[in-house]
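Narrative summary of target 7.
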Amino acid sequence: MLKVIRGGTVVTASDTIKADVLIDGEQIAAVGAIGAVDAETIDAAGCFVLPGLIDNHTHMSMPFGGTTSADDYDTGTQAAAAGGVTCIVDFGLQMEPNGLQSSLEQWLGRAEGTAHVDYGFHMAITKADDQTFKDMQAMVDQGVSSFKVFLAYKDALMVTDDLFVTALERSVEVGGIVQVHAENGWVIDHLVRRALGEGNTAPIYHALTRPESVEAEATSRAIRLAEMAGAPVYIVHVSCEASAREIIAARARGVHVFGETCIQYLFLDINDLKRPAPEGARYVCSPPLRDASNQDFMWDALSFGHLQSISTDHCPFNDEQKALGKDDFSKIPNGLSAIQHRLALMWEHGVKTGRMSPSKLVDVTSTAIAKQFGMHPQKGTIAPGADADLVIFDPNREHRFSLETAFSNVGYDIFDGQRTSGSARQTLSRGTVVFDNGAILTKPGHGRFVKRGPFNAALHGDTKA
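Modeled conformation, tokenized:
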């Protein structure tokens, strides 16, 4: 069935124009002045029509610290759609040695038939061995073309530098890209043991034992090793100026390094960890929240292209789960619930304040991510032939963050009480309205697995900042 979105302002990463959008089934058929047509009409007068956002950093149904993240692919993708997100790229963790295939099948099984928006996977390499590296080719062949390594979480997820380099070298051979959680796990382990030995157990010590310097050091090391291996590398959840500067310096000398930040590093800060129980524990994530003095620099890094995207690292844990660390901050499950909030917050504090244009917002939340992770031009743009993944953003639809308006299963909202003057009014995934004025209209299973292409350096041009 045909649909036509009329009267809105269409925003892509390169243009902002008054135009209609014609949808034929699951794809965009035309963009421009659409004449009389027998189609369902969606009135977007006074609104902006954006490509559906892509959240390339989420953790649904993820085992961590003796528990599992509170959102599955049903509740998590409902929250995504309510925030204008039409595709996620979730992280599958390697759960056992001797390869990646069985772990991918586990994650595919969790998502199939449950998601409301489309989804893909990165594969995290945690138990690197010969079969694991061999399986990297099979992952790319199946549309999982990005891999993650952790330089933190000693004795759990962390890989050693030699295995990291092997993953980098292998990624070049198979056409993938390696993502890095860049914190120095050895130093963190030392600082945590010392803090606990001194009786310091409160959530604030999560941040104090993971200082900016251990992130900056690991970021520098990851980049230098990737440079040596001749491999592209992507630094996830960059939290502070010191780490961003390592990326800027490397890009200036021509290294194929890319970086993302997350909304929590723009809108929250280290003082949130000092809140009284149980609130302080809600803000424990890794890397931790930083001093607010970093935030202006992080905004500029996004606006000037030094960091290429902004995601959420959505990994929610409820108060009962967070209480696992009530007497030991190192046992608090790491993660925040943020997938629903990115568009409204970035528009309110980015576009409305003049920090970035609407097109820049589209780029860092959708287009650049689609290019980086092998989904462009199927996703991340508004053009004939692309998936009809669209969000109608109403700049006058006020939104108040609260438990009543949140779709996540976490049981609280870390932005509770804050307001934005605009928010997503409708979200369409492959031409189907998933979210409409506060309600989810689809049943679990509308979302499909997205087979992503290999990393394509040609889409990124000269890496010099």
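The chain has two domains: 2-50+383-399+421-440, 53-376.
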